[in-house]
Amino acid sequence: FRTQRKTIPDIYICNLAIADLIHIIAMPFLTHQRAHGGQWAFGSPLCTIITPLDTCNQFTCSDIMTPMSLDRYLTLVQPFHLTHLRTRSNTIRVNLCLWVASLILVFPVWVYSKLIKFKDGLESCAFDLTSPDDALWYTLYLTLTTFFFPLPLIFICYVLCYTWEMYQQNKQAGSIPRQRIMRLTKMVLALVSVFVVSTAPFYVIQLMYLQVSQPALTFYVSYYVSICLSYASSSIKPILYILLSGKFQKRLRRCTNVEV
C-alpha cells in the first residue's frame, strides 16, 4: 500500500506536466500571430489544431487539480478509507478519463476555431462566433468549467487538510511517513496556488470584457499581461516539481555538506 501511495501523486503531476507541455507547444504559433498584428501565417489546418490545443490545457489542468486535491484530502485526513480504490491502476484510469473529458469539453473550440479573412486582407486564426450572445455563452462556458466550478472544491479540500493538520499537531507529533505526506501535500498546494494566481486574472478579465463596450488601452495591457501569466505558469511548475521533490532536497543537502 505504501508503494502504491508513493506513485499516486506522481501520476497526477506527470499528467499536469504533459498538459503544460502541450500549452507550451502552442505558444510560439499564437505569439507569432500576436506579434504580427493578428496575421496567421501557418495555414487553416494548423489553426484548427493549435487553438484547441492551447485551450485544452485550461480544461486539463483544472480537471486534474480537482481530483489531485481530493486525493491529498483522503491521504491526509482519511488515510485508511477507500484504500482499495486509491491504487496506481485506478489513478491512471482516472487521468485517462480526465483527458477524454477535456477533449470533449474542448470540442466547441474545435468547431469554432478557423481562419477568418477580414476586409483589410488580414487573415487571423480565431473563434468564429457569429453573434455577441455566442461570445457571451462561450466565455461563461470556459470560465465556469475551467475555473469557477473546480476552485471551490479545491479550496474546500485544502481548508479541511489545514484544519486536520492543526488538530493533529495539537494532539501529537507527526511520524516520518506523515512528514512525507505533508511534503507531498505542500507540493500539490504550491502547484494549485500557481494555477490559481496565474489563471485568475485571465478569467476575471474575460468576464469584464463582456461588460465593456469600448475597451481602453489599460484593459488591453491587462489582458495581454494575464495571457503572459497563464503561459508563465507552464514554465514555473516544472521548476516547482524539481525544487519541492524530496530527492532534489536530499541531493542539495548532500552537496552543501560536502567538505572542500
TrEMBL record:
Similarity comment: Belongs to the G-protein coupled receptor 1 family.
Protein name: MCHR2 protein
GO biological process: neuropeptide signaling pathway
Location (main, coarse): membrane
One GO MF term attached to the UniProt entry: neuropeptide binding
Designated gene of the protein: Mchr2
Localization: Cell membrane
Keywords: Cell membrane, G-protein coupled receptor, Glycoprotein, Membrane, Receptor, Transducer, Transmembrane, Transmembrane helix
Transmembrane segments: 96-115, 135-161, 188-209, 221-244
